[in-house]
Amino acid sequence: NAGVTQTPKFQVLKTGQSMTLQCAQDMNHEYMSWYRQDPGMGLRLIHYSVGAGITDQGEVPNGYNVSRSTTEDFPLRLLSAAPSQTSVYFCASSPPPRRNMNTEAFFGQGTRLTVV
Amino acid sequence: GENVEQHPSTLSVQEGDSAVIKCTYSDSASNYFPWYKQELGKGPQLIIDIRSNVGEKKDQRIAVTLNKTAKHFSLHITETQPEDSAVYFCAASGNDMRFGAGTRLTVKP
Fold first, then answer.
1. In terms of pLDDT, which residue wins out, B31 or B96?
2. Is it the case that residue A100 has pLDDT exceeding 70?
3. What is the pLDDT of residues A5-35, one digit of tens each?
4. Among B17, B24, B31, B37, which residue's Cα sits nearest to residue B97?
5. Confidence (pLDDT) at A75
6. What is the C-alpha separation between A64 and A85, in angstroms, rounded?
7. Which of A21, A99, B4, B54 is least surrounded by CB atoms within 10 angstroms?
8. B45 touching A (Cβ < 8 Å)
């Protein structure tokens, strides 16, 4: 298994450009999520999905869109990039809860995005 | 939503000493509390976790304790080694998973 695969690893955008960060997992996990990591602020949840066709907002969703058409893929879209979106983005996936308790998140290697 | 506070933000110890990182959470519905280690340029990796029906868990040199009444949990690393140097994150998981701000641990040889 490849686990969680994110592409690209690095990206530079100009303000106002759009792009999609790709995330794919081959573990048949139902739960997928996107985080951004900024210095001193840890990992902040952007959007998450509990299964195909279902998405929900996290704590910092503004400026980002997601969709979940398949179990495997969970792309993150920036419609009009802003310098405040310069960050490292991590995608994660988790198996379903066991005995009504949540489970480990498996992370991709991250995408370093710079918006100039 | 869930709010996770983590302390300290930086921690420096001598090799062989113990390191303790503490976290608090706000949502009583959270039932799963993982700890992640992140090395430079990599994604976070799980090192230990604890569920809400357990008070303590140990795996070799690392241990985690959970106090559900007080809503806090801690990571203990004993006999620290230079390769333990990294950023450590706690998290609390209920409807979603929220992370603390991280602790940069430096183990000096």
1. B31
2. no
3. 999 999 999 999 999 999 999 999 999 999 9
4. B31
5. 98
6. 10
7. A99
8. yes
Nearest CA in chain B to A89: B43
Integer Cα distance of A35 and A6 in angstroms: 12
Give backbone dihedrals phi and psi of A83, rounded to 5 degrees, phi first.
-55, -30
DSSP-derived letter for residue A28 is -
What pLDDT shows up at residue A98?
Answer: 67
Q: Are strands B10-14 and B103-108 parallel, antiparallel or unpaired?
A: parallel
* Nearest Cα to Cα of residue B34 among A67, A46, A92: A92
Task: Give the C-alpha separation, A6 to A11, whole Å.
Answer: 12
> What single string gives the DSSP state of each residue in A11-57?
EEE-TT--EEEEEEESS--SEEEEEEEETTTEEEEEEEEEETTEEEE
CB A36 within 8 A of CB A47: no
What letter does residue A105 receive in the DSSP assignment?
A: P
pLDDT value, residue A85: 97
Interface test with B, best of A38, A57, A104, A109 (most B CBs within 10 A): A104
Cis (ω within 30 of 0) for the bond into A8? yes
Length of chain A: 116
Amino acid at B101: A
